Amino acid sequence: LKLGVLASGRGSNLQAVLDAIDAGRLDAQVVMVISNRQDALALERAATRGIPAIHLPPSEYPQRTDYDRKAAELLKGVGADALLLAGYLRLITSELLEAFPQRIINIHPALLPAFPGLHVHRQAIDYGVRFSGCTVHFVDEGLDSGPIILQAVVPVQQDDNEDTLAARILKEEHRILPEALQLMAEGRLRIEGRRVLIQ
Ligand code: GRF
């Protein structure tokens, strides 16, 4: 699997992927990391490993489709055959969806379809759910709406705040994301309508 990565921030999920590759648990290569933010730690994590790390400033591409066309061109240029959104805080457009059909994966820190979008842990705590978790899913046109590959369940405790809940969930993100990518690398994921069958 030749993975391109889009990330906006800290990049701990990117790091989990790189660690899984090093440990021989994931048969993949990260070929490029692109960020909309110059100060994204994700870029630094990539650069220290000699992975092309590119800051693509949205201000230079007023149209999101132009931005995504450029990103797709850069990713294709280094041979990416799948795309991982690892804490990427923008919606992607058809330019990327069409460049990587059924080959874009996102990690979301809730049990979808509950709590899509932003401020996810706040939503979960305020709603009063006893369990939350994380979801690795294929990306479609919608917001956190594509076919689900893997999920992990995490208890919500009465004294949780956003940070404590986020930390408990993040551990599981770091576990199931490389697992899902490995299934993809092995060609074991088949999308059937809304469902993903693991073969
Ligand atoms: C993670 O919680 C991910 O699920 C969400 O944004 C966060 C990114 O964290 N989409 P990191 O940048 O991978 O550390």
UniProtKB/TrEMBL annotation:
Pathway named in the protein's UniProt entry: Purine metabolism; IMP biosynthesis via de novo pathway; N(2)-formyl-N(1)-(5-phospho-D-ribosyl)glycinamide from N(1)-(5-phospho-D-ribosyl)glycinamide (10-formyl THF route): step 1/1
Binding sites annotated in the UniProt record for N(1)-(5-phospho-beta-D-ribosyl)glycinamide: 11-13
GO terms for biological process, alphabetical: 'de novo' IMP biosynthetic process
Swiss-Prot/TrEMBL site (Raises pKa of active site His) positions: 144
Catalytic-site annotation from UniProt: 108
HAMAP family to which the protein is assigned, alphabetical: PurN (MF_01930)
Protein name: Phosphoribosylglycinamide formyltransferase
Species this protein is from: Heliomicrobium gestii (Heliobacterium gestii)
Record lineage: Bacteria, Bacillati, Bacillota, Clostridia, Eubacteriales
Gene that this polypeptide is encoded by: purN
